[in-house]
Specification:
Distance between the termini: 18 Å
Radius of gyration: 18 Å
Number of helices: 4
Structural class: alpha+beta
Order of helices and strands: EEEEHEEEEHEEEHH
Number of domains: 1
Oligomer: single chain
Shape: globular
Largest sheet: 5 strands, mixed, barrel
């Protein structure tokens, strides 16, 4: 079942209509994300306020598990935009401290990438929890760029090689369909 149908406006720019809810998008949505690292949900809801510190793109659980949000980009080879997932990765306490120390430092972009484990399920990519990643700092005001480095994983392959616009539409279709099925 195709979720999005392409419509033409008078100016010939296509719009996208969701077949589930009828919502019309001026542009195909290409950015998705998670508000929390997956590990967040392992803490019972009635204990979260006490055990979890969450601020924008940083999260600490029990003062010993450290997470940060970053941007995982999949190039679309025949389109002028990319498919983007805002994801969470775990990082070491040392790297978390370094991120905090460099939060407002414009030279943070000169730091070496740091290792982490993906803590977000990336829709349509199978099991992505705990796959290997590296994070590269961006300029102030931007979250780090996350790159999957899990050898042989479809997510790593698509990040390295890119996907077609047709494949991006299929991925977006699946994401929107799943959202409709859970609501």
């Amino acid at each position: 079942m195709k979720l999005f149908s392409f419509l033409k406006k008078d100016n010939a720019k296509p719009t996208y209509k969701c077949s589930c809810c009828g919502k019309v998008y001026d542009e195909l949505p290409l950015c998705f994300g998670s508000d929390y690292p997956d590990y967040y949900f392992s803490v019972p809801p009635n204990e979260r306020e006490k055990r979890i510190e969450l601020k924008e793109s940083l999260c600490v659980v029990d003062e010993q598990h450290f997470f940060h949000r970053g941007r995982l980009t999949i190039p679309i080879t025949n389109h002028n935009e990319n498919l983007i997932f805002n994801v969470w990765t775990s990082i070491s306490a040392d790297n978390f401290g370094k991120r905090m120390d460099l939060w407002e430092d414009p030279n943070r972009t000169k730091e070496e990438p740091y290792f982490g484990w993906l803590q977000t399920t990336v829709p349509t990519y199978g099991d992505t929890l705990n796959i290997k990643t590296i994070a590269t700092e961006q300029e102030i005001g931007l979250i780090p760029e996350i790159k999957s480095i899990e050898e042989g994983h479809r997510l790593t392959i698509d990040q390295e090689n890119g996907i077609t616009f047709k494949r991006a539409v299929e991925i977006v279709d699946e994401i929107i369909r799943r959202q409709h099925n859970t609501n």
